[in-house]
Prior knowledge:
By secondary structure, the protein is mostly helical. It has one domain (about 1-59). The protein is built from 2 helices and no strands. It has helices spanning about 1-45, 50-59. The longest helix has about 45 residues, at about 1-45. It starts with a helix and ends with a helix.
Amino acid sequence: MARAMFTDLWDGRALEAKDAKETLNKQLKALGAEVKSLLGRIVQATSLAVIGAYEACIE
């Protein structure tokens, strides 16, 4: 009985960890795309103020 309860809890925690990992990977991918976009804008920008603002977003 105790073993089954422990197994259920363990499996539940493993599923939660898997879901959290997937969520974090999606967020990381989105942030990477945002940084890439901002870097592209910095390269195309001519105003120092605009460049500074984009750089601040990346940091």
